[in-house]
Structures are given as structure tokens and as C-alpha cells.
Amino acid sequence: MPNLTLYTYWRSSASHRVRIALGYKGLTYDPVYVNLLEGEQRKDEYKQTNPMGHLPCLVIDGVKYVESTAIIELLEELYPEPALLPKKPEDRARVRALVQIVNSGIQPLQNLVVLDRIGEDKEKRLDWLRHFITRGLTAWEALASRYAEETGQKGPFAYGATFTAADAVLIPQLYTARRFGIDLSPYPTILRMDEATKDLPFVKAAYPDAQPDAKP
Ligand SMILES: N[C@@H](CCC(=O)N[C@@H](CS)C(=O)NCC(=O)O)C(=O)O
Ligand 1: distance of its center to the CA of 111 in Å? Predict the structure, then answer.
């Protein structure tokens, strides 16, 4: 078994993705907690771990890996079973597109480093967050429905009958959406995925509120 260390924060959605992927593959890790609200990610000490000052970072046998989707792909290549990507290239491309809607179309816009540029005004920050999360989830739902029609798949997961990287990335985004009071009722595919995954043991174990560094 490799020696794994994860730099993580309970409410970091990118860390949450990697916690899910590790749990899905049955891999255990030692956590290192980095408090985002206290700005620990911006200190020089952490920037030697990730020069962007972002979580997560996964250390495998002493080697540091950053960027959650690159980490998930690495885990998939090192530990192919159970798989997080389908076998067919066309299906893999679709799963990766669903991942990227969240990874590049939503999450960067909700990041603390972006919100801090908007200013201290809480209402302004909330309005920004709700706008971009809603925009991204609306696109995600439309794309997933199109894929379901093209492939004849009926779920219950984000892409078809098995859990994939698309679920691992969407689940943390839903946590954030709920946290900011976004109405998920217009998204039947997303809600179906949520229902199918919420009680899976590795999903529950990765949940922000279940982390030892969670604040009540
Ligand atoms: N694309 C990066 C995004 C990482 C990222 O933005 N992490 C957030 C937490 S979810 C962070 O560390 N933010 C620190 C900040 O905004 O200061 C990834 O997927 O790993």
C-alpha cells in the first residue's frame, strides 16, 4: 500500500472530490488540515506544497500532486479498479466534460480568492455565488440530459449506472450549492444522483461535516 497524505480542509470542495475518490478506491490517507478561513493556504510554508495556494495536495510516497482533477486521473491510472472513468473513449469524454463544467465553470468562481476581490459586502458575495453556481448547474443538468438521450442511459448516477468521476466532483458542488441556499428542484438528474449516492459509505465518510476539522 502507498503512503498517502492529503492536505485538506473540511469545506474545500476540491479536497472533498479527492476524499471521495480515495474512499471509492479503498485508499486510506493521513490528513493534514489547512485552515482556509485563517489564510493558512496563502502562507509561504503551504505555497511550497502548492504554489497556487490552493487545496488539495495529495502526497504519494513523498511526492506532491496538486489539482484535484489531475489527482483523480492519477489515482485512476494507479488504481484502475473500481473505475472512476468508463471504458469507451466517447463515454470518458462525456464524463470529463461533466467534471469540467464544475471544475472550470463553477468552482473557480466561488473561490475565496475571487470572493475577496468582490469585497466585504455579504449580499454582493452571495448574489455572485448564486448566479454562477446556478448558471453552471443549469448547464450541467442540460448536458447530462442530452447524454442520457444520446446513450439511452437512465442513471441513477451522474453518468449512467455506475459511480464515476462526474459524481465525485458534483457531490461537493451540491454541498456548496445548498450551503448558499440554491434551489435544486429544477435539476432532476442532479437530484437523482444525489439520492443514489448520499448513503454510500465512502460518500458519507468524505462529507465536510464528517471531517475532524469541521467547525460546528
Ligand atoms: N483547480 C483546483 C482548484 C483548487 C481550489 O480552488 N481550492 C480552493 C478550496 S476548494 C482553495 O484552496 N482556495 C483557497 C483560496 O481561495 O484562497 C483544483 O481542482 O485542485
Answer: 6
